[in-house]
Amino acid sequence: MVKQILRFIVYGLLLMSFDIPAGTLTAMEATTASDDEARAFLARWLELSQDNNDFDAVMTMYADTVDFYKLGRVKKDAVRADKRKYFDRWPMREHVLTTITVSPGNAVNEMKVGAVFHYKINDGKKSLQGDADTILVLRKENGKVRIVSEKEGTREKGSPTGSSAGNDDEAKKQLLGEHLLSLQWISWDHFGKAVVTEQNGALSIKGEQKSEKNDDYVTINGIVTKVGAGEFTFTGTIITKISYINGGKPCKREGEMTFRITGKRRYWRLVQMDNPCDQATDYVDIYLR
């Protein structure tokens, strides 16, 4: 009993001596989202924000209070109303991520995620497109990641948006352009196509292979973050749908993934081969020209 009283007194003295704000200890005890978790969260946020049918799913990604653009710190209902107005104004939206950066936030359980993405929006009569620069602050508490701040980024107009400054020039030249794409469950005879493009210094990849026999497919979409001799890394999604795997339902890989050339092979193969939705090994290959 005496030890418990002494422990309580010492704990109180520490609080007073360091002037720790209310709620800080709770945040300190919370875990921080990993880089991969933050990147996957942002990719998911962008993807859901393209579809009006996913509006409620988008809103579950926000905390109860958000520091939201010029509105400042507001309740989630105000964020919902603002986003609902935008979704209704532009019902057709497309986002292509061009670069992403992750850094520690101000609190121990926060991460700051910067994203530059190309958008295309359309209301059926008028269309607009351009580049958006957004900074999200993510907070992880009780195992859940939520957006606590959404603001415009500070990238200067005309500055590079990519993260490929340290890329191997020869490897980058080899990767840029159009390539054959295949998943062995679909076909090694009738290929799909993957295209790597560069915009403002940033590399992005997008591709698809469809079966000629049924509705099976594989798609890849994301930003290339690193290119080296014989391999490249990208952040984004790979979706596979095979009639006899995962009950015929689509399976999504999301986050950072690597493609690598081994031996004398003439293709990059996805390193993360284990299917996350079923007991299967997927050979996702992108071929050298």
Structure description:
With 289 residues, this protein is α+β, with helices and mostly antiparallel strands. It has two domains: 31-152, Roll (Nuclear Transport Factor 2, Chain: A), CATH 3.10.450.50; 169-287. The chain has six helices and 14 strands. The protein has helices at residues 2-18, 24-29, 35-48, 55-59, 76-89, 169-175; strands at 62-68, 72-75, 92-104, 110-122, 127-141, 144-152, 177-183, 192-199, 202-210, 217-228, 231-241, 251-260, 267-270, 284-287. An eight-stranded antiparallel beta barrel has the order 7-8-9-10-11-12-13-14. It has a six-stranded mixed sheet with strand order 2-1-6-5-4-3, with helices on one face. The longest helix has 17 residues, at 2-18. The protein is globular. It starts with a helix and ends with a strand. Mean pLDDT is 83; it is low at 1-29 and 156-166.
Approximately how much beta-strand content do the residues carry? Answer: 35-45%
**What integer value in Å does the Rg equal?**
22 Å
Structural class: alpha+beta
Helix content percent band: 10-25%
Give me the strand/helix succession: HHHHEEHEEEEHEEEEEEEE
What CATH architecture of the largest domain do you see? Roll
Q: Find the count of extended strands (DSSP E, 2+ residues).
A: 14
Question: Unreliable stretches, pLDDT < 50, 5 or more residues?
Answer: 1-29, 156-166
Counting DSSP H or I runs of 4 or more residues, the number of helices is 6
CATH domain class of the largest domain: Alpha Beta
Average pLDDT for all residues:
83
Strand count, sense and barrel status of the largest sheet are:
8 strands, antiparallel, barrel
